[in-house]
Amino acid sequence: MAIFMRAKSFLYSSLRSLTRSQRCNHTLGERGLQAELYSGMAPAPNPALRPIDTSKWKKIQASKVGISLSMISFPSWIVLKILHKGGFEAYLVGGCVRDLLLNRTPKDFDVITTANLKQIRKKFHRAEIIGKRFPICRVHIKGSIIEVSSFETVARHDADKEKALSSLIPKICDEKDLIRWRNSRNRDFTINSLFFDPFTCNIYDYNGGMSDLKSLKLRTLIPAHASFQEDCARILRGLRIAARLCLSFSKDTERAMYDLSASIGGLDKFRLMLEVNYMLSYGAAVQSICLLQRFNLLNILLPFQAAYISQHRATKNSMMLMKLFFNLDKLVSCDHPADSSLWVGLLMFHLALVNNPQDALVIWTFASVLYHGNWKEGVEFAREYTKLEVKFVPEISEFSETKSDEDLAKEVAQFASLVQDSVGVLTETSNLFESMSRYPFSACSGLVFVPKITAKNTAKLFDLMVEDIRSFINGRGRMSPEINFHLLGIGDPCETRFVLGKIILETMKAGPRGDATEIGNDEKDLQPKATEEILSNNEIPGKKVKKNAPSSFIPDGNRGMLKKQKLVDDDTNQEMVTKDELNDLAEKHQEFGKTCKLSENKTNSMQGKISEKEEKSKKDKEKKSKKHTKVVEKSKHHIALHTASKKQQRVVRELNLREEDEMDNLEKVLGKEEVKERTEEHKGRAGKERSGVSSLSSLFR
């Protein structure tokens, strides 16, 4: 025992001398000594507990890395300000700091404070404490929910770990640094362990998060196997972050993900739904599906879709499923996410097609009716565009243009019913096993995680089409063709139907033309490569702008008014005319030229007269059309303002009333001048374009 005490005393004195000189990094000699001291003794040292090298702790001015206070959302700023005025330390922490450094819009802003949860709740008019294992306080303010956690909660939960760490902490250490560092050790990844103090405008990095962010590397704070065994949901979270930011994995993290991927099957269904929704609703669905497939997780979460992808990769056929999610990613992002009913609806639509292949005209009509909001315009549009040959196997069975409206209505209604029935594959294990009979050699765990209430609400989207499609009216009215992201985010049925139809139409229009949406045959193709280049020493790249490409289906501001348009290919910006058609036209033109026996002089004189008349008529037509379009645009603008649905108007009124009440409360706490200043500042930023999704060229082709 005396030998053990002397050895222990020697070890601690060595550690103290190292920390005083700020050289706490391990050497081979120290590792050998530690192993020798612990040999034959139980328990063995925890690999996560290492001597603390405070020389690696960094404090960085936010302005030097391109972060300003105006980048913080107004509701988050209000929460931070109220806590600060109450005498508490308050910081932004985690993913929001990471995204601000990458000049991206954060999914949400998480706040951590030295106040305990009860003190936090007392500070706000509308706040509640939720959670049992890691309780937090949810603050409702200005139509947003800000999650506020307490340093005290984490410290109390990990009391044993705190005791183990206390022996490794330098005695000469700032108390605030110590509090932040202890909390950072409980984070999942180094890039999520950063703190931002908006009142001193400093960023605190205790774990090399800035370095990993510059190299776009995802690394766990403690050894990856230990981290994922502690919480296997971190595997899904890591894949989601890597997919959205195009990060690579450290070798340790990648190996642990492969080894422990099966453990996610034991997660709570609510947690699985939460993580999958974050993957598919925030603009990185294609990359997320690729990574889930790569790490053998897709066959656990969505086995039918995993089997479909595997089969198509083997046959090198075009995948309609990936194109659907590719077009979803073009519309949504972190600052404009969709409700889960949108991606659940896409899965239902695709399941119904794979199990019951349809005529192309039926699919065109189904999507067009969803998009236009009524049967008449939907059918006219579908008949116009069904001439395009789209080859998706096995989804499309045939091409026909001769169906009567009555027969077409029956088939579309029947297909809508099949889409509703396919929801069982996502919610019932027995239905899943039955559908997997299509892929007898693919593994299936029988796990289903989509909540029945979500499935039920999604199935209701198609009720009107099943009951009487010819009298179907979406209820969205002749509103702007632009997406209302607020309504889409809360799962408004009218807006969800509109966007669902838009995605399917874009997919049918593009067809299997290889527009960078296929999973590569080589596993290495699935690893995201960095598209965000972090410059040297705290320089952040410029923001990439993502624009909503105008739909080629509808003239700007003119949804519902059908006009013949030339389809334009998105990638090449050229008219979609095949080489055979061009050759036929050239031959006909030559034959016509040979048959013409008019002399050149006569021809020229005739052409001159005709051209003069044509020019005059063209000018007259242009003047009339310009006047007409101005009148039409003005009338449409007024109609759009007055034809919004009653439900949407009621939602807007309720939000305005809530905002007025909250503004009154905030003015009492912060003062009128500050609230007014911050409101104007954030309104000015609201018109800026949002960040874009990184290029997919490294994932596909």
Q: How does the overall form come out from the CA principal axes?
A: globular
Helix content: 40-55%
As laid out across the biggest beta sheet, the strand order is: 1-8-7-2-3-6-5-4
Contiguous uncertain segments of 5+ residues: 1-45, 514-579, 592-607, 634-645, 685-701
Count of helical segments? 31
How big a fraction of the residues is strand? 5-15%
Radius of gyration of CA atoms, rounded to a whole number: 30 Å
What's the number of extended β-strand segments?
A: 12
Largest sheet: 8 strands, mixed
Distance between the termini: 65 Å
- The average pLDDT is 75
Keywords for this structure?
701 residues; alpha/beta; Beta Polymerase, domain 2; Hydrophobic Seed Protein; 8-stranded mixed beta sheet; two-stranded parallel sheet; disordered N terminus; nucleotide-binding; nucleotide binding
Task: Give a written overview of the molecule.
This protein has 701 residues and is α/β, with parallel strands linked by helices. Helix content is 53%, strand content 6%. The strands form three sheets. It has an eight-stranded mixed sheet with strand order 1-8-7-2-3-6-5-4. Helix 11 packs parallel to helix 13 (269-280), helix 11 packs across helix 14 and helix 17 packs across helix 27 (493-510). The radius of gyration is 30 Å and the shape is globular. Keywords: Nucleotide-binding, RNA-binding, Transferase. Belongs to the tRNA nucleotidyltransferase/poly(A) polymerase family.
